């Protein structure tokens, strides 16, 4: 792996076409790290903090406080009655003990982790592949693909989930029709896709990947655009083929973006809610198909339980991502 | 533009890839196509033994009924206001924060980075009660501004992270070279790095736009006044407008709701295709 | 490029100004408590416009105050009530709530005590199951607004072709459904004698109720699941028979839109709330009228279409164990209550009195809803739909009035349970499991 500060074997060379660029050759001397903060006046030392203030205020108020409250509530008995004024009772770790003592909850956790890893991996592979494809095609094809992705991403979920439900409907589903009519698989004509948990998760995976890939494509494509053209051309002159250029040059350079996107996919797929919720309501056996998101929701009237479950989910997510986070922090040290 | 370098003879391989891209786009768009196609059909033809793939004998009636609904334009107005305000605030705040954490070294920086990451890992399903109480205390329930505040808070951590990734993607050597030439750090950042961030800003902007435009759960509790509905609330209302849902009308409504998303994207996508060379040249 | 960016900033700045102005304006208008404005939250579209106008006018005449009606969607109503009812500034002064959601909020203390009003607005005449759902320890908090019953719709031509008569008992119903299924008079590959999808517990519990069983019963201060009781099991045996030999409906489907296969000619019977008559749309009757066409000609055609549909379809209340009896079907409907945090308690009570006045109750009935006060159900009319609704409505039964019943529905325990029955699982085994889950959830 390459540290982000020295990613480019062929450092930005002088542009071929020599336009009036304010980017001169890279100086051989490494500039001072952490530009000498001690000597700067106070105003400059406060600078970064001032830059953070506008972001911090809404986060602390709109998100931080509710999150802390959710955490506090997880140690109380807090339901709808408390919402209407009945005093909340402190119960210590009871909510956690109750949840973690239930073997069903462990099953839900295991399923969620498996679902999350499969979906995040599939989404990343398909998303990165399509992003690379976007850099390789002409403008018309690229915009077609972009708009297609955007439609999948930006159409109201209410409508797309209804359509997906129709597509996989047992009696009138287009999927079954296509399998039965043009493909001649008569046994599939009234196939129930949602009744078996494994088949249910298969359908859910198709939908989740379909909805998540566009985000990956857009972000990674934006990242790939940052790779200086000059580097690619220099590498090409050095005889690197397209695959080598991609793998040894472009991918390492967009690593920070890939890292963020992968992390977010893991976070989001672990708490996947809407797709599972709608499919359950379309006729799947609920208890056998719960993932953490829908399970928390089914506890939602017991706010304290939902809070405890949220904390447990945080721990799981941290467990799944510690490796990456530590690696990232180590890079920050450099 | 990058034209002179990139636009060489379109090789056979490149054309093949172009075809592949279009095919992928068509497959991906199929469910959305099904929505649009359904919008042209009367409800009694939506779910039948023989699916209708092309609404050749379709009707515009569903669309006309959407436009006849006065709540449609009202909800559009509310959603546009919320989305524009959210987007402007989130991008601006996130951008300066990303600048701070990727180009300055200061005490508490790492804590901040880890905190905004961890914040995103906590399921937020149970937060709406506290958020509602906050807004209620400030008299901001049923107000565009109130909804915007919670949206900005929800989108910011992600946007900061995203932009930070993009800032890190720009080799710091480029800036430092400019500093050697006598520019201040801030000036170097804005002259050199900022233009390179255009694609990242666009990607984050699209994300923020979609989040604010399509969010349902918080809007549901914050905007209870029928006159302050956002677009997703209005759409849900269409589902219940009659005792038996008229799905053709819902699909027509959803199709129209998607239009601003596409318009917004086409408006910003030029920034995305510009890429490094163009940015560096003009910056 | 620079120009573009500046333009963008300008647009954003303009939006900021416009929106802050807009946000500021809302502040003074917000809230609703205090002053002489009373806000009523009605759920869904069941209350016709005519009735809303009546309420607004009458309320103003009688009290001099203004009534504002805000319609809320059923979907998402619970989170809205969880937040708004707890806020003194935002709470409506009167609220309509689903009958199965009613115990949850009543027990939580969301509503004001209206026991002293109970006799005045109807007392014993109010639908008893609904009153029970709004009562805690003999204190009344929520009272019935309206109820809607379920009835069975059938295709007359299919009945004739299969030589089946309208059933008069539950056993005959099962026999008819099986005979129709076997005869397949429509000649469709996936024909259902009775459309009965796997998760359709709303219809399925009628067999449990009619056999004398229940979903859960109170023992001391505990609720226990009652699906394993001999009565419930007897009903479930019939249910399983229907699933196995009277329907081709998917196991992975719920009670939504049962008229679709009916309209497609793929089922001979379905059970639904009586308003489903407006959703029956047989292709042979369809005149292809544009729904937004309001010309006299179009309306005439639509009337003709509806007449054609209603001529080809019949309706009957699901029969009970003996001829002449109706089955105990599930009653849908809603309650109405005054939020405890409302600052307009007196005006809200005045509005409550108007809602339970003879005039308004009669208007509800005239619009096809079984009114909260049974005395006025006679105004439902005498067509077959009204009669079926009335017959079914009299014996209709609610889900248990347990504080946490909404959690049982939220966890979809009954959907899963009926799906198991549809899949051929032994009813005793499935019931034992479901009873355990219900008991755990309710206590």
Automatic annotation (TrEMBL), chain A:
It comes from the Bacteria. Residues 1-22 are annotated as: Disordered. It is found in: Cell membrane. GO terms for biological process: transmembrane transport. Belongs to the binding-protein-dependent transport system permease family. One of its GO terms (cellular component) is plasma membrane. The chain crosses the membrane at residues 46-68, 104-133, 145-167, 198-225, 246-268, 303-325. Pfam families: BPD_transp_1 (PF00528). Its main location: membrane. It comes from Blastococcus haudaquaticus. This is Carbohydrate ABC transporter membrane protein 1, CUT1 family. Gene3D superfamilies: MetI-like (1.10.3720.10). Residues 109-324 form the ABC transmembrane type-1 domain. InterPro entries: MetI-like (IPR000515), MetI-like_sf (IPR035906), UgpAE/MalFG_permease (IPR050809).
Automatic annotation (TrEMBL), chain B:
Gene3D superfamilies: MetI-like. It is found in: Cell membrane. Pfam families: BPD_transp_1. Keywords: Cell membrane, Membrane, Transmembrane, Transmembrane helix, Transport. Coiled coil: none annotated. One of its GO terms (cellular component) is plasma membrane. It comes from the Bacteria. InterPro entries: BP-dep_ABC_trans_perm, MetI-like, MetI-like_sf. It is a multi-pass membrane protein. One of its GO terms (biological process) is transmembrane transport. Residues 76-268 form the ABC transmembrane type-1 domain. PROSITE patterns: ABC_TM1. The chain crosses the membrane at residues 16-36, 78-100, 112-132, 144-167, 188-210, 247-268. Belongs to the binding-protein-dependent transport system permease family. This is Carbohydrate ABC transporter membrane protein 2, CUT1 family.
From TrEMBL, chain C:
InterPro entries: Bact_solute-bd_prot1, SBP. It holds the Pfam family SBP_bac_1. Residues 1-23 form the signal peptide. The keyword Signal applies. PROSITE patterns: PROKAR_LIPOPROTEIN (PS51257). Keywords: Signal. This is Carbohydrate ABC transporter substrate-binding protein, CUT1 family.
């Amino acid at each position: 792996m390459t540290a982000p500060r020295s990613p480019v074997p062929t450092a930005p060379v002088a542009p071929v076409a020599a336009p009036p660029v304010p980017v001169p050759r890279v100086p051989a001397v490494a500039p001072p790290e952490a530009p000498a903060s001690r000597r700067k006046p106070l105003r400059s030392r406060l600078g970064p903090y001032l830059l953070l203030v506008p972001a911090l205020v809404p986060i602390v108020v709109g998100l931080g406080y509710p999150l802390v409250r959710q955490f506090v509530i997880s140690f109380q008995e807090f339901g709808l009655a408390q919402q209407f004024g009945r005093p909340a009772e402190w119960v210590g770790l009871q909510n956690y003990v109750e949840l973690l003592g239930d073997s069903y909850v462990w099953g839900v956790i295991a399923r969620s982790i498996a679902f999350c890893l499969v979906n995040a991996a599939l989404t990343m592979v398909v998303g990165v592949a399509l992003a690379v494809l976007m850099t390789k095609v002409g403008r018309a094809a690229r915009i077609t693909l972009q708009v297609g992705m955007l439609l999948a991403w930006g159409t109201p979920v209410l409508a797309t989930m209804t359509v997906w439900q129709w597509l996989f409907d047992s009696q009138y589903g287009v999927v079954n029709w296509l399998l039965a009519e043009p493909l001649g698989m008569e046994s599939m004509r009234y196939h129930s896709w949602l009744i078996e948990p494994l088949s249910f998760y298969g359908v859910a995976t198709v939908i989740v990947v379909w909805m998540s890939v566009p985000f990956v494509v857009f972000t990674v494509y934006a990242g790939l655009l940052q790779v200086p053209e000059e580097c690619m051309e220099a590498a090409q002159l050095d005889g690197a083929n397209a695959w080598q250029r991609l793998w040894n040059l472009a991918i390492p350079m967009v690593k920070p973006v890939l890292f963020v996107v992968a992390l977010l996919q893991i976070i989001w797929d672990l708490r996947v809610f809407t797709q599972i919720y709608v499919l359950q309501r379309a006729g799947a056996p609920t208890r056998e198909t719960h993932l953490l998101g829908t399970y928390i929701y089914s506890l939602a009237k017991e706010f304290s339980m939902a809070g405890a479950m949220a904390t447990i989910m945080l721990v799981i997510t941290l467990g799944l991502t510690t490796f990456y986070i530590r690696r990232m922090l180590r890079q920050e040290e450099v | 533009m990058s034209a002179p370098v990139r636009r060489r003879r379109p090789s056979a391989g490149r054309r093949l890839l172009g075809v592949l891209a279009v095919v992928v786009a068509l497959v991906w768009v199929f469910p959305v196509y099904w929505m649009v196609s359904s919008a042209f059909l009367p409800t009694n033809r939506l779910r039948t033994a023989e699916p209708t793939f092309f609404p050749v004998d379709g009707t515009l009636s569903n669309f006309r009924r959407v436009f006849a609904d006065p709540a449609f334009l009202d909800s559009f107005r509310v959603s546009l206001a919320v989305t524009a305000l959210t987007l402007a605030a989130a991008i601006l705040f996130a951008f300066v924060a990303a600048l701070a954490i990727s180009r300055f070294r200061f005490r508490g920086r790492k804590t901040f980075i880890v905190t905004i990451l961890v914040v995103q890992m906590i399921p937020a399903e149970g937060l709406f009660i506290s958020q509602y109480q906050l807004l209620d205390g400030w008299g901001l329930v049923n107000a565009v501004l109130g909804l915007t505040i919670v949206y900005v808070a929800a989108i910011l951590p992600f946007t900061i992270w995203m932009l930070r990734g993009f800032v890190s993607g720009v080799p710091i050597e480029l800036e430092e070279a400019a500093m050697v030439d006598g520019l201040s750090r801030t000036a170097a950042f804005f002259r050199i790095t900022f233009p390179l961030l255009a694609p990242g800003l666009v990607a984050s902007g699209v994300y923020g736009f979609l989040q604010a435009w399509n969010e349902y759960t918080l809007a549901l509790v914050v905007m209870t006044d029928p006159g302050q509905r956002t677009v997703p609330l209005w759409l849900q209302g269409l589902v219940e407008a009659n005792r038996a849902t008229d799905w053709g009308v819902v699909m027509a409504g959803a199709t129209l709701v998607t239009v601003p998303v596409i318009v917004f994207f086409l408006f910003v996508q030029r920034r995305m295709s510009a890429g490094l060379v163009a940015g560096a040249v003009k910056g | 490029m620079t120009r573009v960016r500046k333009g963008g900033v300008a647009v954003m700045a303009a939006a900021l100004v416009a929106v802050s102005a807009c946000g500021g304006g809302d502040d003074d208008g917000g809230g609703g408590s205090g002053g002489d404005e009373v806000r009523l939250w009605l759920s869904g579209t069941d209350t016709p416009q005519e009735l809303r106008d009546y309420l607004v006018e009458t309320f103003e005449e009688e009290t001099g105050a203004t009534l504002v009606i805000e319609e809320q969607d059923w979907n998402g109503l619970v989170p809205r009530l969880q937040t708004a009812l707890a806020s003194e500034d935002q709470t409506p002064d009167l609220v309509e709530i689903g009958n199965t959601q009613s115990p949850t909020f009543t027990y939580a203390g969301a509503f004001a005590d209206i026991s002293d009003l109970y006799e005045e607005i109807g007392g014993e005449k109010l639908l008893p199951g609904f009153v029970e759902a709004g009562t805690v320890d003999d204190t009344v908090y929520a009272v019935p607004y309206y109820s809607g019953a379920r009835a069975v719709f059938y295709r007359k031509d299919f009945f004739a072709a299969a030589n089946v008569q309208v059933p008069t008992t539950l056993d005959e119903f099962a026999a008819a459904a099986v005979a129709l299924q076997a005869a397949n008079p429509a000649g469709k590959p996936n024909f259902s004698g009775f459309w009965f999808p796997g998760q359709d517990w709303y219809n399925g519990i009628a067999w449990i109720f009619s056999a004398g069983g229940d979903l859960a019963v109170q023992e001391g201060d505990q609720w226990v699941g009652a699906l394993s009781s001999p009565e419930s099991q007897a009903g479930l045996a019939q249910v399983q028979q229907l699933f196995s030999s009277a329907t081709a409906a998917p196991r992975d489907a719920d009670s939504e839109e049962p008229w679709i296969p009916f309209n497609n000619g793929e089922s001979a019977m379905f059970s639904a709330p009586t308003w489903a008559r407006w959703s029956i749309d047989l292709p042979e009757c369809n005149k292809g009228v544009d729904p937004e066409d309001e010309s006299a000609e179009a309306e005439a055609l639509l009337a003709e279409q509806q007449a054609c549909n209603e001529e080809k379809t019949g309706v009957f209340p699901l029969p009970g164990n003996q001829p002449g009896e109706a089955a105990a079907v599930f009653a849908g409907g809603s309650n109405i209550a005054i939020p405890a945090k409302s600052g307009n308690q007196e005006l809200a009570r005045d509005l409550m009195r108007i809602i339970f006045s003879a005039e308004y109750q009669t208007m509800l009935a005239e619009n096809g809803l079984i009114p909260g006060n049974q005395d006025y159900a006679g105004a439902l009319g005498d067509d077959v739909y009204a009669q079926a609704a009335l017959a079914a409505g009299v014996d209709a039964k609610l889900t248990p009035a347990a504080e946490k019943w909404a959690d049982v529905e939220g966890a979809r325990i009954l959907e899963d349970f009926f799906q198991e029955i549809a899949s051929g699982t032994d009813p005793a085994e499935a019931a034992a499991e479901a009873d355990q889950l219900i008991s755990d959830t309710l206590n």
